Amino acid sequence: MPRKSNQKLKLIYILDILKRYSDEENPLNASDISEKLSDFGIEAERKSIYDDITYLEQYGADIIKTTIPKKGWFIGDREFEVPEIYLLSDAVRSAKFISAKKTRELLAKLNSMLSETQEKRRANVFFSAGDKCGNEEIYYSIDKISSAIENGHQIKLEYSSRVFANDRSVKRKTKEMIINPYALTWQDDCYYLIGNHAKYDNLIHLRVDRINDAEELSVKARHFSEVCEYKEFFDTADYTNKLFGMYTGDSAQVEFCCNREISEPVLDRFSENIFITNVTEKTFNFKVNAVLSDALVTWVMNYGSSLKVVKPEALKDMIKNRAKEVLEVYGE
To answer: How far apart are CA 122 and CA 129, in angstroms?
Structure first.
C-alpha cells in the first residue's frame, strides 16, 4: 500500500529525482521515475507521471522532453551550469585556506547540483589534504569580520605566526590585536583581511587562516580615509592590483623598460590597460602605479636583464642593494 504521507511529497521527489539522475545524455522516462519513487515508498502509475511533469512545468521547473537517446525528460536549466560547477569545484580544491574537512563538505554541496552521471565524470579529481589549512575557525572568522566591515565596527582577534624554537621545533606565537577592518580578499592563494591596526596609521594585511577568536566589538572603526588614499569607498581591486605578494610599502609610479619576449607575463600581471611608450623592435616602456616592496624587487629580478626599472630611483636602489646582498652570499 502506498504511504499517504509520502504521496503528498510525490512532486517534490520527482523534481529531486530529475535533478539527481537526469541530464541531456541520460533522460528518464515514466518507468524510470516510477522505479525511483518506489525507493521513497511511493507507488505511482506511469500515466500519473505525465500529469506530475505537467504540474512541475506549470510551477516553473525547466523540464525538457526528448526522444534522444531515448524518450523521457531531463532537467534543463540548473542553478549552475555544469562547467560552472566544475570551475567552482576546482577553485575549492586548490584553495589552500580552505580546510580539508570543509573542502569535502563544499565539494559534496557542489556535486549535489549535478546529475549522478555528471558527478561521476569528476570522480577522479583529488586534492592533497596536506596542502590545506588546518584552522577550522576560518569560516567563523570570515563571518565575524564580514559583519564588522558591514557594521563599521572594530574587531578583536588573535593572530598567530610560526617561529623556530631552540629545540628546532616549529612553535606558534600569538598576539592579540584590535583591527579596523576594511576588506576581505583572496590573493596569492591566501585569504586576507585588509585593515588598520588600532595603534598605527597604515594598512596591514592579515591572513585569515592565522586568525582565531575573532570578536566584533561595538566600537566604531576608524575610517579608511584616515590611513589610505581612498575617500568615498575602499577600492579593493585597485588596491590589491598595486601590491606584490600582499606586501605593504610606499606607492609610486614605476616605469619599466621591458623586452618584448616577456610581454605575456607582464600583461598577465598588469593587464592590457598599461600605458605603453617607446616601442621598438625589441623593447617597450610602460608605467604603472605599484607599492615599492621586497616582493616587487623579487618580481623584477626574476626577469633578469629582460626587465629594467627606469624610475623611480628608490626602486632602482632597492634592486641594487638586493643584488649586492645576493652577490655577497655567493661570492664574486
So the answer is: 18
Q: Which three cell numbers stand for residue 218?
A: 561595538
Instruction: Determine the Cα–Cα distance for residues 318 and 177; give it in Å rounded to an integer.
Output: 31
| Residues whose CB is less than 8 angstroms from the CB of residue 110 and which lie 6 or more positions away in sequence, other chains included | 85, 88, 89, 92
Q: Which three cell numbers stand for residue 12?
A: 517534490
Length of the chain equals: 332
> For residues 138 and 153, what is the distance between their CA atoms, to the nearest angstrom?
19
Grid coordinates belonging to 164: 623556530
Q: Which residues pair with 215 in a beta bridge?
A: 156
- Residue 264: alpha-carbon gap to chain centroid: 23
**Is 124 in contact with 33 (CB distance < 8 Å)?**
no
| Dihedral Cα 223, 228, 234, 236, nearest 10 deg | -140
Q: Tell me the CA distances in angstroms from 268 to 273, 274, 304, one per residue in order.
A: 11, 11, 18
Residue 239: Cβ-neighbour burial (10 angstroms; 0-12, 13-18, 19+): buried
Helix (H, G, I), strand (E, B) or coil at 287: strand
Per-residue pLDDT of the chain (332 residues; tens, 9 = 90+): 444 556 778 999 999 999 999 999 999 999 999 999 998 889 888 889 999 999 999 999 999 999 999 999 999 888 888 888 888 888 888 888 888 888 889 988 898 888 888 887 765 556 667 678 888 888 899 999 999 999 999 999 999 987 777 777 778 889 999 999 999 998 877 889 999 999 999 999 999 999 999 999 999 999 999 999 999 999 998 888 888 777 788 888 999 999 999 988 888 888 766 788 888 989 999 999 888 999 899 999 999 999 999 999 999 999 999 999 998 998 76
**What's the farthest any 2 CA atoms get from each other in the chain?**
91
CB 144 within 8 A of CB 213: no
Supply 116's cell numbers.
549522478
